Amino acid sequence: ICDDIVREFSVRRGLFGKGTVSAVDHVSFDIARGETLAIVGETGSGKSTLARAIMDAPGPKSGRISIAGRALTGGRSVSRKQRGKLVQMVFQDPVGALDPKWTVANLIAEPLGAQGSLAAEEKRRRIAEILSRVGLSASEFGARLPRETSGGQAQRIAIARALVSSPDLVICDEPVTALDVSVQAQIIRLLFELKRDLNLTFLLIAHDLSVVRVLANRVATMYLGRFCEIGDTADIFARPAHPYSAALLSAIPPHPGDPVERPRIRLLGEPPSPLAPPSGCRFRTRCAYAQDICAKVTPKLTEHGPNRSVACHFPLTGVEAAPSSASTAT
Ligand code: SF4
Ligand code: MG
């Protein structure tokens, strides 16, 4: 769905000084219908920016995005209304994302407005149906305001709102991060069931790898605006080939299916300023495996086994010893 996406921001003043940040740098991927692709990375990796480039007009600075054969970018792109039929988004903070003055029923009805003249009765029926899908009853919640719901209920409402118009793609940006830990598992379970029962296509933006493991068929790791690695979730979790993926994964508890116990890899140093990313491989200043070539030649995302691509000059094979220069602990 995304081909060679570039998105830049001009920064006047701010955390990083002055200049241009290329938050997303030549990123390409596609998602099959019914599939969930997770994009994983630290804060500032560009994953939310990527989601925004898909969601919002005017879209990316360059590159092409299309969903279900319809172009979202370029001269013959779809209208705003049509875009809402193709893609909807679930945000991190459900309460902040819902207009506080609207009732739950009206919030959910809004995306249906773009579908021309649905009869009032049909609208009511669809709202009740989608609310029950997310585990809420229309008679109990339809007339409430967002502030009259809990965080978990508000996220269920936001999910219902995103799904009511049956979009081709649903982007979930950190859908459980802002919720109480006790509620997180319920929402993950709900997303899992919805995906299974309705054959939904999700782009999941996450830093929580346990969420990714449950929901995503494929995962892409992202660092300073570029993809490091993309492949099948189980495969990458078992054998990460990019040192950044390996570091992210070593931070979570091992899983019964994992072949070997991995040493904990801590990233070296601090993340560099996105205003002046390192030459060559952007991860090199924090990579324990970096060699001279890593500073000179940008590693391209290249095929590395079935359904897997890796952007690294020295992909891990899974048998190397813990790097001596890395800070490791068990
Ligand atoms: Fe590390 Fe070099 Fe691979 Fe970049 S290209 S991840 S610096 S080994
Ligand atoms: Mg974010």
UniProtKB/TrEMBL annotation:
BP terms from Gene Ontology: peptide transport; transmembrane transport
**Keywords, in A-Z order:** ATP-binding, Cell membrane, Membrane, Nucleotide-binding, Plasmid, Transport
What family is this protein classified in? Belongs to the ABC transporter superfamily.
Q: Which GO terms describe its cellular component?
A: plasma membrane
Task: Please name the source species.
Answer: Rhizobium jaguaris
Which parts of the sequence belong to the ABC transporter domain? 6-249
Q: Does the keyword Membrane apply?
A: yes
**Full-sequence portion shown in this chain:** 372 to 701 of 706
Where does it live in the cell?
A: Cell inner membrane
What are the TM regions of this chain, as residue ranges?
Answer: none
- The protein's name: ABC transporter ATP-binding protein
The protein's predominant localisation is: membrane
Q: What domain of life?
A: Bacteria
Alphabetized GO MF terms: ATP binding; ATP hydrolysis activity
